[in-house]
Description:
With 425 residues, this protein is α/β, with parallel strands linked by helices. The protein has a domain at 89-359: Metal-dependent hydrolases (TIM Barrel, Alpha-Beta Barrel). The protein contains 12 helices and 17 strands. Helix 4 (173-182) links the parallel strand 8 (145-151) and strand 9 (187-193). The protein starts with a helix and ends in a 12-residue tail after the last strand. Mean pLDDT is 94; it is low at 1-24. The protein binds zinc ion.
Amino acid sequence: MHSRRKLVTAGAALATLGALPAAALAAMGPDDKFDLLLRNANVLDPSQGLSGKRDIGIRYGVIEAIEANIAAERGLRVLDVGGKLVTPGLVDLHAHTYAFGSAIGIPADELTANQCTTTVVSAGDAGAYNLAGFRRFVVPGSRTRQFAFVHIAVAGLAGFPVPELYNIDYAQVDVTARAVAENADFVLGVKVRMSENVIARHGVEPLKRAISACERSGVPAKVMCHIGGVADRALMSQILDLLRPGDVLTHCYSGAPNIAGDATNIVQDGKLLPAALAAKRRGVVFDVGHGGGSFDYTIAEAAVAQGCAPDTISSDIHVFSGNTPGMPYLPWVMSKFIGMGFTLEQVVTMATAAPARVIGRVPKLGTLQKGAPADLSILEMIEGAVSFVDTRNNKRDGKMHLRPAGTVVAGVAFGRPYQAPFTVR
Ligand SMILES: [Zn+2]
């Protein structure tokens, strides 16, 4: 089966990855210039409790300096952001970016104008049989950093909306474990969708197979478990009980009913399930995954009030959800949580440092600390009345929202000022 040698190899690969960014910090001489200098940034980096007007100097793809004032002459290229909000690059833990390979994917770079994302996680677009296409042909062609959960169903979401696990034989533990182990540099674990309209009446079996694949891989691997309209109320608690610390519960505030129309989610009759609170307390990651049918204000408000605030805010953006009234683009979803009473600092953390910690592959990702990857999101804070809608036609009013205004990945801006030559990461 899976040999010790494989475990050692995968572990060594991760260790090497971890060492890279620190080595890239070359000392700057007094006459050296920054490759890119961002001026007049209203910086917010919760990871270091930093907020206020700063200039940011970037060289060799990493953050070299973040100071009150850096002279314009010190930058080969200067981007004056005119007082706009600048945060660590947004990290979307649940997106669908395997265009051409899954039926719902959008190219990650095409999303940046609407999402302001610099890192995205493909949430089960690929299964073990088509992951290599994502790895070889899609990830290298994108400037956006990409990671993935591999689907327990061997063809991933290639057949969407045809349910991938009505036939449980598509859920294959051995090949999925192999895919996780052999791609541990960018595969975070295993995705499984547990809705009745995906798995019929297979109960906890798909989730058990996803957990088995993680365990059998021999590398640290998490399950990303999609809920919403699971078959019955008892199954919802069984799912929660099976999730391990570090596993990700996505669509955590779904209000989608099961096929018969019954409410079977983490809040039932207005009460949070004890199993949900227990999962939260042992370290299961509560991920929003708004999407086109998976965010219900009435569930979210009750869950938050009873102890289950989100850990990560993600979009679940794909070719279907992106056309729905809930508009699940990451800054818009973040704005909904500001409207619910979370602070800007909390919301930025939940879309930067928190998902970066779940990814756990790149040191200082999700921060603007010196030596961090120079990934930045530039956003406008638009003050004024705004109206939001969830995926079940519940409306809420807000007082402000975030609007994407620019993205920098590995020190290179999307758009102007252009890199010359355009030789990027
Ligand atoms: Zn999704």
